[in-house]
Amino acid sequence: MQVSLPPDVCLEARGVSKIFCRHLKRSMWYGVRDIARECLGRRGSRSELRHGEFWSLQDVDFQLQRGESLALVGRNGAGKTTLLKLIHGLARPDQGYVAVRGRVGALIALGAGFNPILSGRENIYIAGAVLGMRSAEIDARFDEIVDFAGLGEVIDAPVQTYSSGMAVRLGFSVASTLEPDVLLIDEVLAVGDFAFRNKCLQRLNQLRTKGVAFILVTHAMTNVVQFCERALWLEKGRVKLDATSQEVAARYVAEHNPGAAAGGLFGQTAFNHDRLISTRVTVGDIAGQNPCPVRHGTDGVIHFRFETREALSAPNVSFPIYRGDGALMTTLATIARMRSIPSRNNVYEGVVRFGPVPFLAGDYTVVANLHDGTEHVFRDAVGRLRVTGLPEIGWGYVKLREEWSFPQRQAA
Amino acid sequence: MPPSPEITRPPEEAIFVNGPDSLLLKPSQLWGEMRSEFATTKSLAWRLLWRDLQGQYRQTLLGYSWAILPALATTVIWVFLRAQNVIRIDVPEVPYALFVLTGILLWHTFHEALFRPLEMVKNCQTMLERVRFPRESLMLASAGYVLFFAMARLIVICGSVFLLGNRVPATLALAPLGLLALVAFGTALGILITPLALLIRDVEHGLRIVMQFMFFLTPVIYPVPDQFPASLMIYVNPVAPLLVVTRDWITLGPSMYTVEFARLSGVTLVGLMLAILWYRLSLPLVTERLRA
Question: How far is the C-alpha of A284 from the C-alpha of A300, rounded, in Å?
């Protein structure tokens, strides 16, 4: 198949479809038949599903320009990783084609080829070779790799003596040394400690300024907005939306709202706790309109009432507030202020006023916890905090008051 | 972070197209890809071989002697059984200890060559699923690994010839050629079974059982039988001529089965090339099914 790409395009996917089979034994036999067809020169495009097969990807079309960054978003099983594998050449499409100009790098298998019994130094050369780096390239970048991984004197110790974080850092350090034309990144930005994640993001920014095109698979909409100009939203193997990252992230968050997430994240187990008779929690603004939106920068209020069968020895309440993707935004807790909360006839009742709410606009899930010492008497998602007055997507989770000053301007 | 040293890279403007059509329909593209990947294949195979040799016995006290010890132990058992008349095996002109040690070391080399490609691919399964690299490098590293230990065994064999043998035949110089043929034959078969064994685990289980029988159906601990139908073994069992001729070269001199050896070596050479082609075509279809 001859494909020509415009000079500014480094990747093109046209009508890409991929079929998989969920039944293990059927998949084995289909595999044998596919190998036979391949070796007899009879394998080609196919549109008919065999028994037990399904479309993992269907009719995916997109182009990637040189230096462009594209996010792939979608729920688990949407086909994101399959699409990366087709781009990387690790799997063959059943319809359509993927054409790539230049070298493809991947931050997917960090530490691929590592032998844990060998030292970090030895493994750098092995992992580099697996990723297609020449010995001279590894020699030239060796000190930079060790420095970036922050391993210093332990570089000559066996990798099996490293912590898992150290091994991942070494793997990332080697893999990110590549300067490919297209870089595939699959959820690796979630590894390592905060300082290392920061270094990773700096390295990716460096590569972007050098004109490397990115395809980033992530569930974190902040990364989508921060790193990518464009995003492709996959749903059940099809492209649901191909638009700017802002637009895709906003619509994605709106669809997977905290109300929907609350059930999945925190369960639906209210009122079935043995020690509890009833629970009532309401979330709203200070006017007491429950439930009602809280405007960004104003205060919110939670009214709560728990009734238990018997007295608790060290009762406390807390209200963690989660974003739609499960990120913990803050926790309102009595334990920080008092050893235990007062009660009357086994009723624990109160109000917490909090604010000013700095969160970006959107729906947040409020979870209520009633503790007796370290034991959970009750824990469940009890309400939704709707914040208004700002865009839903921004640079981070919160928006603070900003006052800027520029001494140079005053001097002028 | 210090500024990165500038690396000179060749302009890689080639367009890689991944489509559904059989690669056999585009032989020029297939050959071109294999040729362009050859340098990477070689250097990666060297790294992987070095990794495996370095890592294999690093956490042991006896180190590389583990490559020889099982064969020595087996030899001691067979020599003991024969000395006790539990088994009766007549081997003219060669001390039985030398005969059986050579046979077992050669058999172990063939056995290792047969299973090493599959072990190599299984060890690198995560790499195969997630990183694109020339897959042939695994087979090259696998053959290199087997050859390394084959040569180590040859040193032991040569020492045994000087210590235990009645004489040192001039054909001992041909022993590396015999080992090479044995390794090539085992590797070709190993590469052929690897994709299928990876897909259907019964293949490996079955083959390991078959190889236990094959040990006794190959003239390893006994010479080539004279009586029909056992005498056909040398023509029916393809391992037999390679092993017998190599052992004859080491312990006796010229072998009467050299023609069979030459014929099988030629078939092996062609088979090895076809096996590599089969491996290249089939492995991607297998690995994509391992973890969809």
Answer: 6
